[in-house]
Amino acid sequence: MKIAVASGKGGTGKTTIATNLALVLAEEDRRVEVLDCDVEEPNCHIFLNPEIKSSWPASVLMPEIIDEHCTGCGVCADVCEYNALVVVKGSVLVFPELCHSCGACSLLCPEQAIREVTREVGVIESGTSMDISFVQGKLNIGELMSPAVIKAVKETAGDSDVAIYDSPPGTSCPVIEAVKDADFVVLATEPTPFGLNDLELAVGMVRELGLACAVVINRSDVGTGDVRDYCAREGIPVVMELPDDRRIAEAYSRGKMIIHELPEYRALFLESWRRIESLLPSGDREGGTEERET
Which one, of 111, 64, 96, 282, lies nearest residue 184 by Cα? Predict the structure, then answer.
């Protein structure tokens, strides 16, 4: 099963929840993968400290103009929705950073004057840590094509019992690429007005994608009760409330796992997982083989 951990914004404890859930499951003898899809700023490795065993480039296709065939007709620029091609004085200029690799220009060029070539936009790294399979993507500095790197990370998913996607923050294209095929989405939030606003956006995104979700409230004993009231109104289960414990912040700042530094929290994460598992469609639970209802 594939569980995405997402949030409407950064800094809500998303990675803390993803990594500690993964570790508590691994210690329960589940085969677990952590796929760090926050490719602009991956940080699961700080806590899991994996041994990286292999790496390879993440690439996209981009157009290359065959000058001897090009007539400068401008069809390629007209069909490009991202303004990645411009015709200037009969010559086609390509702006790689704007290209989304849709292939429309090469497909529709009447002179067959465009071929697609690969362009490296990031790197994928794979390893293991504490009986957890680990994969992360790193987007090259200055690149905009994070969905391509996220897709490459997810393509490495194996046959584990549970694959946990640590998603990028926000609700834009990279997050959608990370969560769109998940079996369940865990939304991390905080009980503040900003947290509620971003949670509402995240819930809207998840529902638009037709995905089931639950909420984890981090620093649950500060702020207001508005997040809980919202979840109750919307029928969204709250599967864990993690208190504002200074020791958690100190462990985080040292790059340590909560359930190792503060073993009393292990039961909280394990109970959270059991509640998540109880919310999964029957076909997605461990050992289930039924098709999901749509």
Answer: 282
d(CA 78, CA 208): 30
Instruction: Report the C-alpha gap between 232 and 263 in whole angstroms.
Output: 30
Residue 28 tokens read as: 């329960």
Residues (pLDDT < 50) of the chain are 287-294
Helices (H), the chain: 14-26, 44-48, 75-79, 104-108, 146-154, 173-179, 193-208, 226-234, 246-253, 258-261, 266-279
Number of alpha carbons in the 13 Å side-chain half-sphere of residue 50: 24
Q: What CA–CA distances, in Å, run from 163 to 47, 108, 154, 183?
A: 17, 39, 10, 10
CA 73 to chain centre: 40
What is the tens place of the pLDDT at every residue in 217-252?
999 999 899 999 999 999 999 999 999 999 999 999
Residue 218 CB contacts under 8 Å (≥ 6 apart), including other chains: 12, 13, 16, 17, 188, 189, 190, 242
- Tokens 């690799």 belong to which residue? 101
